[in-house]
Design brief:
The complex is a heterodimer of chains A (423) and B (506). Chain A has 3 domains: 27-57 and 114-129, no CATH class; 162-234; 241-422, 3-Layer(aba) Sandwich (Rossmann fold). In chain A, 39% of the residues lie in helices and 21% in strands. Chain A has helices spanning 16-25, 27-39, 122-129, 138-144, 167-198, 202-220, 259-279, 299-304, 314-327, 348-362, 382-388, 407-415, 418-422; strands spanning 3-6, 51-56, 72-77, 88-90, 116-121, 148-157, 232-240, 244-252, 282-290, 294-297, 334-341, 368-374, 396-401. In chain A, a hairpin with a 3-residue loop joins strand 9 and strand 10 (294-297). Chain B contains 22 helices and 9 strands. The chains are: A alpha/beta (423), B alpha/beta (506).
């Protein structure tokens, strides 16, 4: 009568659909929380396998209900230890002390309307994160960088080398052939037999009988495999997109860059890094810091150590070019660069140098370069002025940021889907 | 009779802490036999499902139903439960059981053998019998067709999503959910539902529409004829106030498209299905606990269980009926398991060993067969009437119940009754009121519809014990009513003297 069922093997995720519906409802909140979450993580951490906790406010589900503070209520409680009828207890200050006395069993998890945390997988998170963004020039690179090929299955072919023989497909053809040929013989035999019955002449009968015997023999000797049956796995050479990217972070660490400016720069780099890891399997970062001279450093040092001095920018671009030439062949790597500076340079000459290097040496080989200037003053620096001429090239963008809250909008603006902007 | 069970084999099976499906089958057969033979339990066939913790969370989100229509609310509940479960704030229950035929119960895979036997006795005998025999469940729900109906509801909602867009469907369901508490027929027993009948009804509606199609009808203003007729006949509409808001909207919203009416109907039916559950929490848990306690003790007496099993059982059982006291940090209201179990145990005690006090309080129980009396109580009451009828002075004393009077006018609480001679009846009354539906759900009824011109819907909230509505939520909920009704809506909070204390409009 009873039925005992092991449900454990059933497909998981019965609630996935409803969970998605809920996430859709709080999508705006998730998107708003993103910049905060980013700023709390270190660059490399941010691509970890772990999950992302997004604090959100639950959606209200209003109902007609009593205001717990109002009215006259009798509340029954267990475990009287000291009270007698008529005792008066002063109400606690402020709230009514949570007087609601509904029975609650261990069976009913009481749910509060408080804020709670949605745990997203890293992929879900990044999906929200980069929803409207697209890597600049990515398509172009895919087309251009066909230096590597891989073989990909593409159906069957009739001619190939024995090692690629596909037994299953061949056997299917063989079966079909055997069945159809045997069928043809059987039809003939059937006809023969019919005419045998009709035939009276012994000699003619003998001829027919001999023919039937011949066909019977042919029928059982249909060969198992013929050349026409054989099928071989077919492979096609398809261009393999370059899946590695290198990201250059160039930052001015001269005395004029304070904690605030560095913080903004760091967050911006983090975003870029996340963005790239979403698109490429393998992303490397090169940190170049500069004041009067440029130097390649580790992440820790890049963000934390302080050095004073004036600002010369051109050497850092030269260093970047050198590193590219040495280690990151442009045909194998997608190169991205991001430069952050407060815009101060010592001389106009340096700025003009930078503009030249960028135009002639850097921009032709990089996928994309972004320059952000972090400053509060309204004046255009030399560097800004020099870079401005390059704004026309489609793999260079520049923006001005002076507040943490602007990072995300600026980032979005820099990497906005091209076609969206145009339309 | 008991010869059909091999005592030694079962004893060995049950004392092994890890179970297999043989064990479950034996436990089910044995408890069924004991339940029927010794405790006269009449049950639906059982469908026992073994689930993982994640599947249990799924079951939580859908309140036990194997399927339901898609809605974000269930996703939200799932996420909240999952979070608190992962953080260890919330343990999952060992079982979950729903009122259906066959009676589906979910058992957690990581229960020990003892827990499994306990859970099978508790859910598959206790709750199951309660679902089948309590008058609330018998009259208000149809266990035979609920699963069927939910399949219909899911398909219908998904069809609407395809046809009218998921957002619009969601909007309607949101509005209906806000009124779920007001979608119950408290007095009129609803007709039984089934998906087959619902589908037939929909088909009939559709064909009637096709057959009666007449191009000329399009030229009439919508619903003009119907409303006029109603108006001419009755000055006032509705004649009697209607407390089932969802029902009223489904039947009378002037221009609501049919598919939205159908969604309102679905939520109303689901609300109706859960209504008995909310009204019998104490009794239902109390009876199931009472039953597992007796069945397992009987198994022990008959020699199917060993001492080790019993020790574990007693530990679990006392955890189930643990009642933190009012001043304990773990206190979160009265534990329905404890209260229900204590009352049922006391009914048994009064029948068997009455004291002088019991003779005065419960003359009808004295000398009666306790099992019959327990069955009678289980079948014919719901929480408020059950407490009003059976809460005995002894239980009040044992649990040291006391009542606090909280008046918003005063800056103090007053102890209005304690467990003494003067307090018993008061506590019984107060506690009974506490489980009355009106304690939780405000009394809101449809008063009238302005059929003259505005189609304005007037709702009246009857203020009880000077409890007003939460203003913010009332505003928001009223917007949902407005959305469904599609015309202006007003809500008066009216006191006994007939004077408005609050007024909302939307």
């Amino acid at each position: 009568m009873s039925n005992i069922i092991d449900r454990r093997k059933n497909a998981k995720g019965k609630s996935i659909n409803n969970r998605q519906k809920f996430l859709k409802r709080v999508e705006d909140q998730i998107k708003r929380a993103i910049p905060d979450i980013i700023s709390q993580e270190s660059i490399k951490d941010s691509t970890g396998k772990g999950k992302v906790k997004v604090p959100i406010q639950g959606i209200k589900e209003p109902v007609f209900r009593h205001d717990p503070r109002s009215g006259r209520k009798q509340i029954v409680r267990p475990g009287n230890d000291k009270f007698n009828e008529g005792d008066q207890i002063p109400k606690p200050e402020g709230e009514g002390g949570g007087g609601a006395g509904q029975g609650k069993g261990s069976n009913s998890p009481e749910i509060t309307q408080d804020d709670f945390v949605v745990i997203l997988s890293r992929d879900e998170f990044l999906k929200y994160f980069f929803e409207d963004l697209e890597l600049p020039n990515m398509v172009k690179k895919y087309m251009e960088s066909t230096v590597d090929f891989k073989n990909q299955r593409a159906g069957y072919t009739k001619n190939s080398i024995p090692s690629r023989l596909n037994v299953v497909a061949s056997y299917q053809h063989s079966l079909a052939r055997q069945i159809s040929i045997r069928g043809a013989y059987e039809d003939k035999i059937k006809n023969m037999k019919r005419s045998l019955e009709a035939e009276k002449d012994t000699e003619a009968r003998e001829v027919i009988e001999r023919e039937i015997a011949r066909l019977e023999k042919l029928k059982i000797t249909v060969p198992f495999f013929e050349d026409v049956d054989l099928r071989y796995n077919h492979f096609e050479r398809v261009p393999k997109p370059v899946t590695s990217a290198v990201m250059f972070c160039i930052m001015d660490v001269s005395a004029s860059m304070g904690y605030h400016e560095k913080d903004i720069a760091k967050r911006f780099f983090t975003l870029l890094y996340l963005f790239l890891t979403k698109q490429y399997q393998n992303v490397e970062i090169v940190f170049i810091r500069h004041h009067t001279e440029a130097k390649e450093v580790g992440e820790e040092e890049f963000f934390n150590s302080r050095e004073s001095g004036g600002t010369v920018v051109a050497p850092s671009l030269k260093l970047m070019k050198k590193i590219i030439d040495e280690r990151y062949d442009a045909s194998h790597w997608n190169i991205y660069a991001c430069q952050a500076s407060d815009g101060d340079v010592w001389s106009n000459g340096d700025a003009i140098d930078c503009g030249q290097i960028l135009k002639n040496e850097v921009l032709p080989i990089v996928q994309y370069m972004a320059y952000i200037e972090i400053k509060n003053r309204g004046l255009e620096g030399y560097l800004w002025h020099a870079y401005k001429k390059l704004r026309a090239s489609d793999n260079f963008s520049m923006r001005n940021i002076n507040d943490v809250t602007q990072i995300w909008p600026v980032f979005k603006a820099l990497f906005k889907k091209k076609n969206l902007v145009e339309s | 009779m008991s010869a059909q069970f091999d005592k030694e084999k079962l004893n060995a099976m049950f004392s092994n802490p890890s179970w297999d499906f043989e064990t479950l089958k034996a436990a089910d057969q044995l408890t069924s036999w004991i339940g029927k033979e010794f405790f006269k339990l009449d049950i639906y066939p059982n469908q026992i499902e073994i689930v993982t913790s994640e599947q249990m969370l799924d079951a939580y989100a859908l309140i036990g139903l194997p399927t339901s229509y898609p809605h974000w609310k269930f996703g939200k509940d799932f996420i909240i439960n999952q979070n608190s479960y992962r953080k260890g704030q919330m343990g999952l229950s060992y079982e979950m059981v729903i009122n259906s035929n066959p009676c589906i119960s979910y058992n957690m895979e990581n229960n020990s053998t003892c827990m499994m036997v306990l859970v099978i006795a508790h859910a598959c005998q206790g709750h199951n019998a309660f679902f089948k025999n309590n008058y609330m469940f018998k009259d208000w729900t149809s266990a035979d067709s609920i699963i069927d109906y939910m399949v219909f509801a899911r398909d219908f909602v998904m069809k609407c999503e395809d046809e009218f867009g998921a957002e619009e469907v969601e909007r309607v369901l949101d509005a209906c959910h806000a009124l779920m508490d007001h979608g119950v027929d408290k007095y009129r027993k609803p007709p039984k539902i089934s998906s087959k009948k619902e589908n037939e009804r929909l088909k009939r509606l559709a064909t009637a529409k096709v057959e009666n199609y007449n191009e000329l009808l399009k030229t009439l203003p919508p619903n003009a004829r119907i409303n006029k007729k109603k108006f001419e006949k009755n000055k006032k509409f509705p004649l009697e106030p209607e407390e089932n808001l969802l029902y009223f909207i489904e039947k009378n919203a002037p221009t609501l498209p049919n598919w939205k009416r159908e969604l309102v109907r679905i939520v109303r039916k689901v609300s109706q299905y859960y209504y008995p559950q909310t009204m019998t929490k104490v009794m239902n848990e109390g009876f199931a606990t009472f039953m597992h306690y007796h069945i397992i003790n009987k198994m022990f007496e008959e020699g199917y269980l060993d001492d080790g099993f019993m020790l574990e059982f007693i530990k679990s059982h006392s955890a189930v009926i643990y009642q933190p006291l009012y001043n304990s940090p773990y206190f979160s209201g009265l534990n329905p398991y404890t209260l229900g179990f204590n009352i049922f145990m006391d009914i048994k005690r009064i029948c068997e060993n009455p004291t002088q006090e019991d003779r005065i309080w419960f003359p009808n129980l004295i000398g009666q067969n306790w099992l019959e009396q327990v069955h009678y109580a289980m079948e014919n009451f719901r929480d408020d009437s059950f407490i009003a009828q059976y809460l005995s002075p002894k239980v009040i004393r044992d649990m040291k119940l006391f009542a606090i009077f909280d008046d918003e006018e005063n800056d103090y609480y007053e102890i209005s009754a304690i467990h003494n001679e003067r307090g018993y009846r008061k506590i019984r009354e107060y506690l009974s009121n506490q489980y009355d539906r009106s304690h939780r759900v405000p009394d809101i009824q449809v008063e009238s519809v302005d059929l003259h011109k505005t189609s304005k819907l007037t709702l009246i909230h009857k203020i009880q014990n000077e409890k007003l509505l939460d203003e913010d939520e009332a505003e928001e909920t009223l917007q949902h009513v407005r959305f469904l009704w599609e015309f202006p809506v007003e809500l008066h909070s009216r006191n006994r003297a007939g004077i408005d204390e609050d007024y909302y409009e939307c």
